[in-house]
Structure formats: structure tokens, C-alpha cells
Amino acid sequence: MQVFSVLLRGAIALGFCALLAWADGARRAELLPARARTEPLPAFAESNAQTQAPSQQLSTQGIGHWERIGQGRIPMPPGVLAAHASALVALPVESQASMMAFWFAGDRESAPNVQIAMSTLDRASGVWSDAKLVVDRWDLAQQLGFGIRRLGNPVAWLDSQGQVHLYVVATGLGGWAAGRILHLRQRPAEAGQAIYFEPIDVLPLSWLWNISYLVRTAPLALTDGGAVLPAYFELVRKTSVAVRINGQGDFAGFNRILPNDQRNLQPALLALDESNWWALMRDAGPTGQIRMAKTQNGGRHWSDGGNLPLDNPNSSVATLSIGDQHLLVYNPLKAGRHVLDLAASQDGQRWVTVANLARGSEGREFSYPAIAMADGQLWVSYTEQREFIAWQRFAWVAGPPSAVAQSQGLP
Amino acid sequence: MTSLDFSQIALLMQDASPLLPDPAYLPWLGQAAWALVVAAVVLGALWRQRPSVSNTRLLMAACLALWTFYPGPWGLSYWLGLAFQKPSLMACALALHYVVGYFGARIPFGSSQIHPVSNTAMGAVRIERIFLACALALGWILLIDTFGFLPFSVYAWGFHPVCSAGLLACALLAWVGTGRWHHLASSAPALLLLVLLVFWFLRWPSGNVWDAVLDPCLWIALHSFAIRRFLQRHKG
What we know:
The structure holds 2 protein chains of 2 kinds.
Chain A: H1 2-31, H2 48-52, E1 64-73, E2 82-90, E3 97-106, E4 115-122, E5 132-135, H3 137-144, E6 151-158, E7 164-171, E8 179-187, E9 196-202, E10 213-215, E11 220-221, E12 227-233, E13 239-245, E14 251-256, E15 264-271, E16 277-283, E17 289-295, E18 302-311, E19 318-322, E20 325-330, E21 339-345, E22 352-359, E23 366-374, E24 377-384, E25 388-398, H4 403-407
Antiparallel strand pairs in A: 1-25, 2-3, 3-4, 4-5, 6-7, 7-8, 8-9, 10-12, 11-12, 12-13, 13-14, 15-16, 16-17, 17-18, 19-20, 20-21, 21-22, 23-24, 24-25
Chain B: H1 7-14, H2 26-49, H3 55-68, H4 76-84, H5 89-103, H6 122-146, H7 154-157, H8 161-178, H9 188-202, H10 209-213, H11 216-235
Helix pairs in contact in B: 2-3, 2-5, 5-9, 6-11, 8-9
């Protein structure tokens, strides 16, 4: 009788398993039509901007140089004392605006009133709009059903449907080390309506209440419409991770970039070709250089690439690949953030300074850059003295740089 | 000595796309989950002080549970969510089991501990001890993994259906092995089985099976339970 009982239970269990497998398979097919689990990770698209706006393709082959054609500051929201950590995202050609900039603004970094500010670049006039505060923590808490203590770095990404996604650092109980990555999606707006971002959820990156995961640098677009969002963990050990997001901007898994290293953070992804990527990371150690990791299989497995021979004072960098040219914005110093340069490379090994973006006396700060292409022009934004978000615009000009162009426009 | 290369197995487990629950349901699901857990903790704490069942206690637990639904900073789930995000499905299942037992004026655990141990079958007790040890070990592994001390990410494996299917198979085997038809809801394998079934359909709370079966708060509570059990046995 007991044997019969066990057999009967076994049969019930097997029946359950079969039912569950069928239900799971059906749902997977419904929710994830574009991605087969057994397929390798899709190759990356040549750059964020090229994937998002095909008209922005630009040939940088042959003799030519980047020439600065404009610079200024993005307007701040009224009454805001501090601004930091800007992010740029290029918009599709049919959009009236060619670019959006996001940053966090408030009384100071980590102040209770810090919100995410946004400004758009008008395609026709090339003028930045007045800044608006688009994300605040009280509204988020109301919609999420739980509290958010502080807001921090925003990262923006445009999905295959033309909606902007924001990944924002939102802290729990504690400082930045208790930060989580909150995913927000732009809600489709009628003409004339204000842009509105609805919170989706916190990205599930760790068992320990998801704490201490932050974002800073731009996602790398993939050919399947998804992207790799660089993120990092910074409690006790600082390690970088690559988060896969699908074409709808939803979380689709993650892996660590250098699990054995404990002082790398804020990875900026650079695609040398379809499957060879580099992660250039801020090094929190004493080396004063840019840390590097490599992948040869589209982010499936990362290996240690040592340090790039470029000075960097434990400061965030920004990268962008345009055709066969790779661009890097960084602080070329062993200590301090009072100099900010734009450098270019063909192979990722030898870097040449293209432009001095900012140069100030010791103690001044030009940091946390972002870089993007829009309408064939290169845009760089960065924090100036933690008070403003400054921008500079470059155009690719055939021929060698003139002496005037080389020396122009230093603040 | 050559180091072991775990990259292949790590890659195998990391390539699955997680299925996440609909965000529209998350706020009220989170509040309901915290309401259950809060009610069970309050009832359990009161029972520890003086083992008795009363309507006053039920009213207290109900009031605190209702408090979690209050929106904004004056609500309890606002702060619980801020600190601990969402409880695991297992914590909710244990809490529900405790509260239902309390309502039935029969404390299912024989003591105040929030753990479904029933001593009706020695085999079941052994399996539940194994479950407890596994839960404690799993928590330690996930904690170590959180800080990046492992060459691969155990947490990321939790998104893969193979992982949840493996856990489901273990729970089924344990449930079949306990040989208790009439205590479906009062054994650890049965509760784990129910939790995994719910997870399979809802993917709650995060799409990761580890988040469904064990959360850090439950893990800490299990430590306290295991230590008390150990001391009781040695005193006995």
C-alpha cells in the first residue's frame, strides 16, 4: 500500500512538472519572441548613435580631425545649486529634439531634494531647452509603494520603439553604498504633453536587498535592439558588471566583468568590433590609471586587460566608437579633476589627445563626462564645479587641424 | 596548481532571460506580503512572551498588518520596502502558515518559532533539518556571492529555469519521500513546493528563484531558530 502511495505521488509530481514545463514554455514564447535562449549574445551595433538614428552615420576615415564648433552650459532648473553626472541620449531623426540630457540636480550631491533634471536640444535651432525636473523621489515612492532615500546618477537609453528609458541610482537605507538601480520608462505622451517617466522596478542584481549597485555610463547598443548597461557594485569591494537589457529596456540577465578585481567601477564600454569590446573603468586603487577588461565574445566572458597607459585620478570616463575611431573623455591627471581631455584611438592602444575640453587651476573640477553623436556632430557634456553641466560640440572636418582650431575654445 | 575554470558553467547558467512579474502588481503585492509577515512576526513575538491565543492579539496583528497598506512615509511598507525591498515567497508562505494556524487556535509549530516543523514523522524531521541546513548554507553562499568573492555569480543562476526546475525536483523528491498525505501544508518540502509552484507562474518577487525561496531577513531568522533548536537539544 505504501509503495502504491509513493508511486501515485510520483505520478502526480511528474504530471505537475509536465504541466509547468508546458506553461513556462508557452509564456516564454509569448514574452520573448526575439530572443532564443540557445543563441549567442547578439553582436553590438556600431555605436549607440548609429543604431538609434541611422542618419547620424559619419565616416571618420582618411585625414581629418574633430573641430570644436560650439560650447556652453545647459540651462539649470531655477533655484538649483548643484548639478552632477550628466547623461546624453541621441533621439531619432523624426523627433523635434535631436538629443536629451539628464543629470541630477538639487542643493548638493545626496541632498534630500535632489531630482533628475532634463533638457532637450532643439534640432532646428541647436539650442538647449529650459531644464525640467522629470523624476522626483516622492512621486517614485508613491508609485512603487516603498520609500527612496536619495536619487543619484541617471543613465538614459533609447529603445527600439523610440521610448527613452532611465536607469537611476536610488538609495535605500544608507548612502551611495546602499544604492539600487531603478528602471523608469518614458510614457508615450500626446503632442504638447510633458514628458513623464513611470517607474518599472529596481533591477534585480543581488540577493542582499539589491543594495550597492549603481550606474554611471551609457549603455552599449546591440543589434537585436537591446543593450548592455554598464553598472557597478561598491560595498566593501568595487566590481563592475554588464547588465543585459532587451529591446523593451527590461532586465535580461547580468554577469560580472572582473570578479577577481576589487577596485574597478564605473565601466565605460567601447566596441572595437562586433564581438571585441573593452570596458574602461575607473580604478579606485593607487595606480592612477584607467583599468581595462576585454571580451572577445560579445560580453559572455571578460578577461583582465591590465591598465591603459593613461593617467586617471580615480575618475569616471566616457567612451564612444564611431566607425573605426574610438573616443575617450577622461581626466588626464594622477590627482585632481581640473583637466578634462577628449582623446581618440584607432586600435584602443595608442590614444591621441584631440581636444582639451577644460583646464582649470588645481581644486577646480571638470568631471563625469558623457559623449554622444547627434546629426553628425559629436557632443560632450560634463560636470563643471558640481554647479553646472557644460557642453561642447565637435564636427568632423577633412584635413589636418589648423593652429587656430587646435588652440581655440578653452574655458 | 591550475585554477578551476568555471566560466563555461557560469555562462550556461547566465544566458537565460528572466521572466519578471508585471510591475503594475508589484506595489500592492509588496504591501500584502509585508502585511502577512508583520502579522506573523507580531503574533509570534506575543506568543513567545506568553503562549495564549486571544482576540486582542489578533486585533493588534491585524492593525499592524493594515498599517503596511497605508501609503506614503506614514505607512509601514514604505520603510520596510526602503530597507528590505520585498519579502521572499517562502517568508510569505511561512507567515501565512503561522497566521492561519493561529486563527485555528492551534499553533502549528509547537513553539513560537516561525518555522514549519511538525514532529509527526521522524523522516520528515530529518528532511526538515536538512532543509534548514541547506537554507542556511544557501544564504551564506549568496552573501559571499553578493560581495563578489566567488569566481561566478550564483545569484545570476537563479534566473535560469534549470535552477528553479532543479529546486522543484528536489522539493518534489523530498515531499514524495516524507510519506505524509495529511500534512501537506505543514512540512518544509511541501511549503517549498508550493512556493516554487507560485514562483513558476508569477516569477515573484524578482524573477530570481533565490529571491523567492530565501530572503536575508528570513535567513537571519532561520539562524536564530537553528541556534535555539541547538541549545534546546543540548539542554535536553
